[in-house]
Design a protein that fits this description.
Helices cover 21% and strands 22% of the residues. It has one domain (8-107): 2-Layer Sandwich (HIT family, subunit A), CATH 3.30.428.10. The protein has helices spanning 8-14, 61-77; strands at 21-24, 28-32, 40-46, 84-87, 103-107. The protein binds guanosine-5'-monophosphate (5GP) and zinc ion. Guanosine-5'-monophosphate (5GP) is lined by residues 8, 17, 19, 31-35, 89, 95-98.
């Protein structure tokens, strides 16, 4: 498994930085965003370092499918019943702040702090 020692999400995956975990398996980790926009706001990340959605290739197809299938399952588990947003910020113009691929999953009753 590849990790970038400078990457905050790789540090979370390794357990060197604490997080509130929502889900974990051998390939993926989901954890609550430290600065949530809404009552439910978590991130799904691959455990292996991949900088962004821009860098996705055919070899990542199954993993991405797994991330997409996981999102609705976890929002249901967290009690979200009235819809949610999924956001993948990509690169500088896409306002990506953490360069490790992640899907934002955001939901819960409005009003939200953002979004
Ligand atoms: P981006 O703009 O890259 O799509 O979003 C990165 C997200 O990661 C932001 O919503 C930010 O609050 C969250 N984040 C950044 N650092 C940490 C951290 O150390 N722990 C957690 N749980 N979330 C983080
Ligand atoms: Zn990383």
């Amino acid at each position: 498994m590849t990790a970038d020692p400078t990457c905050i999400f790789c540090k979370i995956v390794a357990g060197h930085v604490p997080s509130k975990k929502v889900y974990e398996d051998d390939e993926l980790l989901a954890f609550h965003d430290i600065n949530p926009w809404a009552p439910v706001h978590f991130l799904i990340v691959p455990k292996t370092h991949l900088a962004s959605f821009y860098d996705v290739e055919a070899q990542h197809q199954a993993m991405l499918g797994k991330m997409m299938v996981l999102a609705p399952r976890l929002v249901r588990d967290l009690g979200v019943t009235n819809g949610f947003r999924t956001i993948i910020n990509t690169g500088a113009d896409g306002r990506q702040e953490v360069p490790h691929l992640h899907i934002h999953v955001i939901g819960g009753p409005r009003p939200w702090a953002r979004g």
